[in-house]
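Action item from last meeting closed. Structure (229 res):
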């Protein structure tokens, strides 16, 4: 039976590499600024890090589902191609729920650094987002998993996937090769760590954490507890 979550492997006694400490410090400073401005915990304001096209559903939906995921994570693939599809059909279309995606690109980072296929896949998704096709790339990446850092998400294959969903390849190539989204992906991952994320997928349902590839029944129960009686 497949695990319903992909835990973060310990990289040091703190679980965070020196690079992440730097990014984490930046995120803490940003969080303090948000607290000063709005008077709420930084975790509750995390949606500001997501662009509009990484959000799916009515912006005024009463329930927000935030997903932290790694495109190489098998449990994330189970959730994305199973429960999330059911959530879209049952709750997105009627305006009850909106989904916000956050990168949590950690698989292989200890060994491969910024050349980890998790980070490169996240960069490809962000470049697709530039062209309004984040969710198409999201689906395509999860449909084409092939092991962790074994070449399934090598640069040439990611470019082929981008072409397959009809992206402007000149614009995609410029974006992808420039690594314009590397820092923001690292910041999103560090921000997730500050919120207590240590495995993928990790979900926040109106800021209440749920860990693993939860079933539609579990999501139903969470939604029912949040909607007005």
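Sequence:
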């Amino acid at each position: 039976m497949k695990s319903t979550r992909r835990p973060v492997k310990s990289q040091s006694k703190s679980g965070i590499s020196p690079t992440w400490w730097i990014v984490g410090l930046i995120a803490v400073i940003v969080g303090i600024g948000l607290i000063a401005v709005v008077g709420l915990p930084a975790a509750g304001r995390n949606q500001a890090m997501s662009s509009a096209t990484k959000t799916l559903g009515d912006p005024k939906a009463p329930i927000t589902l935030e997903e932290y995921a790694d495109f190489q994570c098998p449990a994330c693939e189970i959730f994305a191609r199973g429960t999330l599809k059911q959530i879209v059909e049952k709750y997105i279309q009627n305006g009850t729920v909106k989904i916000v995606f956050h990168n949590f690109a950690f698989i292989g980072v200890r060994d491969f650094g910024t050349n980890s296929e998790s980070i490169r896949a996240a960069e490809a998704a962000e470049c697709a987002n530039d062209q309004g096709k984040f969710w198409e790339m999201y689906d395509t990446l999860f449909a084409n998993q092939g092991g962790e850092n074994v070449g399934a998400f090598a640069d040439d294959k990611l470019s082929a996937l981008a072409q397959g969903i009809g992206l402007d390849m000149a614009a995609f190539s410029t974006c992808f090769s420039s690594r314009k989204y590397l820092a923001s992906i690292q910041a999103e991952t560090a921000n997730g760590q500050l919120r207590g994320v240590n495995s993928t997928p990790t979900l926040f349902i109106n800021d209440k954490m749920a860990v693993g590839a939860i079933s539609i029944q579990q999501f139903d129960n969470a939604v029912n507890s949040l909607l007005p009686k």
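Note appended to the action item: The chain has ten helices and seven strands.
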